[in-house]
Description:
By secondary structure, this protein is mainly α. Helix content is 81%, strand content 0%.
Amino acid sequence: xxxxxxxxxxxxxxxxxxxxxxxxxxxxxxxxxxxxxxxxxxxxxxxxxxxxxxxxxxxxxxxxxxxx
Length: 68
């Protein structure tokens, strides 16, 4: 993996972490409302989990291969 690819992966990782944090804040804000739409909360939580999976995959790509 060359430096440009590594920089791109770090940038994408930053963007995913930012979106994950934004969703966390949105979910917390929605849960403050006693009339919250539970379907919307579930969709946001599902999206948050998908983002977390993507983050973990990217992080694993950035870990150097010990067999290389």
